[in-house]
Amino acid sequence: MFSYYVRLALLSLRKNILLTGLMIAAIGLGIGAAMTTITVNYMMSSDPIPQKSERLFHVQLDNWSPNQPYNEPNEPPDQVTWLDATNLLQEGRAFRQAAMGGTSFVIEPSQAEQKPFIASGRATSADFFPMFDVPFIYGRGWTANDDNSQNLVVVLSKATNDQLFGGENSVGETIVMGGRAFQVVGVIDDWQPRPKFYDVSTGPFNEVEEVFVPWSLKEPLELPLNGNNNCWKPVGEETFSAFLRSECVNSQFWVEFEDPQDADNYLAFLNNYVTEQKKLGRFERPLNNRLMDVMDWMEYREVVAEDAIMMMYMAIMFLVVCLLNTVALLLAKFLGRSGEIALRRAVGASRRDLFLQYTVESAMIGIAGGLLGLVLAWFGLQGIGGLYGDMTEGLNELDLTMVGFAIVLAIVSTILAGLYPTWRACSVAPAGQLKSQ
Amino acid sequence: MSELGPIFRALLRNKVGAFLLALQIALTMTIMVNAIHMIENRSSMMARPSGLDEANQFYLSSNGYAENFNERAVVEEDLRNIRALPGIVDVTQINAIPLSGGGWSMGLQTETGEDKPSVGVAVYFVDDHGIDAFGVNLIAGENFSPTEITYRQRNEQGWPQNIIVTEAMAKELFPDLTPAQVIGKTTYIGGDEPMTITGVIDQLQAPWVGWSGVERVMLVPQRTEFRSSRYFIRTEPGQRDRMMKEVEEMLVAEDRGRLIRNVRTMEETRDDSYRSYSALQTILWIIVIILTIITALGIVGMVTFSVNRRRKQIGTRRALGASRFDIMKHFMLENFLVTSVGLLLGVGSSIALNIWLVDAFSLPRIGWYYIPVAMVILWLVGQAAVFGPARKASQISPALATRTA
């Protein structure tokens, strides 16, 4: 019976090929536009580290000016000071913790034909690598001992290792960075969390750094800052050490718990820490410390761009217009066949049969529209990639979830669109129609 | 207008169909009005002048890495050499590039004290050639003199005595004074360190194009010794591309223990900074155009159906004396009625969506003229779409009335 309906539907669709084409095109364009923008939003808001995002927490401490909050109404700064990051690291109260901040290095390759180049870097502590499940091709991250002894060790990104060592295992080799020889202890495999959740201060979708060095080197080597720095109070003395110990926020601090419940204890510890610091004349604002897990932090920092959200709403409204268009056309089409419907009813087809038949017909338009929509969404995403350039790298890819979603969206919305016209068609009274002929 | 009655009654026979079409037109109008409003909003932001002579400017960055890198000597020699090249108008060392997205900001205030309100301002460290290299106009006061240029160390906290500000910054600090009256006024940086305004320039943009204070800039007469700096270069008209090559070749020719990178024009920088703006515009234009086409085609489809269903009635009307024009007029008027209902709904929903956008995305309100313009456009689109099927209807032969099926 089902194949018979499919045949009937094909026949009816072919009979009015222009109209069928228009309906498929409208659904396809609507689905294509909606899918393009939904995909960008979906990628922007995706969980960058799903296996443990609920156990990783970002720390905020409110060390801002007593006269005004960092952000209205009473938001603490997005970053912490070097001093607090270093103190919390030393306390080591969480299962794992990492202090970090962006920096940069001039790397002088040993081969004479290679020119020196600038590499983006991150100063961080040993736990960074196990905390964020950073994959290694060679070696591994440094140890807490390297942190404590301020050893000149470095972890390279895959691209940097390719550039410097032709992709060979470089563990144990030395490279000259900022005029000093660093020993390579590990090489990271391709790794690009999107969003780059551990530091979104200069852009949530930036590239992962090219070299990683121990946090403890920041002070002795006077590593330059590559990132945002915000101060509310003059630094005082004109030395690097005074700058690090100032109230300027420029570092990030993350903790990992074995159980998300431990967050309460850790927050109590943070409040305790701040209360102690108040005795030293710091932290003049009321207690206002925050712990947020990865997804809460991403939402707080609004990593999904406003433009992307606006575009998505526009595209969804566009899809609604396309569907209204389809409802109106299907209605006109089905009502135009009142005679035929009446005839079939008169010769014995039940309402249910007719209902099924017309639903099959609208579903077929939905499937065709959905497939067209997928193709258009693919082109749309390429177009977005072209329009935005590097900014959207990795954000304009259709994954299986999205493909499935697109097809389901297309079929469901078309069947819904076909529901009212189908119902109207089925309620045609056979006698009246036959008589008027 | 006596036809309106029968047309209206005919419409009522397919209430839902007509209502759906009206709804579609209302939504189309809503999207059109708000999308074009967003496009216009971005256009006006992109059209703000930077104050620069963008077509003839480029910059590069110089990073010292060698242990023996003598920044002061290298920078002074570089600036001298670049300036000596024929085709160069002027050059200055600078810490940040206008429109580029990365820079330094401070707060200035007119009364001392940490609790007093301060005005955010972008900081450019330039020398006495800054104004000339930017191509901006001094509208009051004086340029820096070569003797007042000092050197700034990386961790230095203090500020020099004199600054030059943009007119927008002067207005923000001293709303009641003219640029000439602002000269000699004292402002405070970091709460209590005084600085004197010695010059006002007409216009110069900050590095952040999305910042509400993008017109607020101050020039500080210092060269930086941060080991990493930029040279901002202005060339004679049409000489830019040639000079970019020449300057880079000259600077890398000798190994001075530094890297020359990022040789870029101001035009590229502008395109990069506004890329997301123009991308959004393109996408919205595509949506609006396709939407209009779909709505128009939908109208064509609907009218074709209703003509086909009423072939016999049309034939009968023709047989009873209605002219072809009368038949056409019927369908045109019918569409006009439905479109009008849709557009009335659309006025409400356009304004509602705009209010929500103002609220959620702090977009400005739409100008009143968007509404009538969108209405006229959609009326015309509707009439154009209906024209083809209506003409076909008018060609139905009166003889049809006499046939049975």
TrEMBL record, chain A:
Species the sequence originates in: Pseudidiomarina aestuarii
Membrane topology, record value: Multi-pass membrane protein
Membrane-spanning segments: 21-44, 310-335, 355-380, 400-420
Domain ABC3 transporter permease C-terminal residue range list: 314-428
Name of this chain's protein: ABC transporter substrate-binding protein
One cellular-component annotation, GO: plasma membrane
Domain MacB-like periplasmic core: 20-218
Keywords, ordered alphabetically: Cell membrane, Membrane, Transmembrane, Transmembrane helix
Molecular function in Gene Ontology: transmembrane transporter activity
Record InterPro entries: ABC3_permease_C (IPR003838), MacB_PCD (IPR025857), Macrolide_Exporter_MacB (IPR050250)
Keyword Aminoacyl-tRNA synthetase in record: no
Pfam hit, one: FtsX
Subcellular localization: Cell membrane
UniProtKB/TrEMBL annotation, chain B:
GO-annotated molecular function: transmembrane transporter activity
Claim: Transmembrane is one of the keywords in the record: yes
Location of the ABC3 transporter permease C-terminal domain: 286-398
Entry's Gene Ontology BP terms: cell division
MacB-like periplasmic core domain boundaries: 52-248
Alphabetized UniProt keyword annotations: Cell cycle, Cell division, Cell membrane, Membrane, Transmembrane, Transmembrane helix
Family (UniProt): Belongs to the ABC-4 integral membrane protein family.
Protein name: Cell division protein FtsX
Organism: Pseudidiomarina aestuarii
